[in-house]
Amino acid sequence: MCRSIKTLRPPAIPEEATEEEIRAAALQYVRKVSGFRAPAAHNREVFDRAVAAVAAATAELLDELEVRGAARRAG
Q1: CA–CA separation, 48 vs 40, rounded Å?
Q2: What long-range pairs does 3-10 form, CB within 8 A, spacing at least 24?
Q3: Is the dihedral of CA 24, 55, 38, 34 positive or negative?
Q4: Predicted local distance difference test score (pLDDT) of residue 10
Q5: Which of 15, 48, 17 is nearest to 30 (CA)?
Q6: Which of 10, 15, 69, 74 is at a distance of 20 to 30 A from 22, taking alpha carbons?
Q7: Using CA atoms, how far apart are residues 23 and 27, in angstroms rounded to an integer?
């Protein structure tokens, strides 16, 4: 879908994903889906809410994924 979004779960990365990495992936996703690199002022609030929602969903997904051979994230 978007080549700049990287896999954020072990073993693709050696440690758990940081909040910054999760937010960066969410931002790239929202940019791709919306078609805007940076939203106009009248769309900023909804754009930012979408990034926050995608980041929260991503963090929840990573917290709850069970990857064989890897310990679950503490959180």
Answers
A1: 12
A2: 4/28, 5/29, 8/58, 8/62, 9/62, 9/65, 9/67, 9/70, 10/67, 10/70
A3: positive
A4: 77
A5: 48
A6: 69
A7: 6
CB burial of 34-45 (b: ≥16 within 10 Å; e: otherwise) equals eeeeebeeeeee
Which residue carries 């051979």 as its tokens?
69
Q: Which two tokens stand for residue 30?
A: 């929202």
pTM value is 0.81
**Whole-number pLDDT of residue 3:** 66
User: Contact 22/58 with Cβ under 8 angstroms?
Assistant: yes
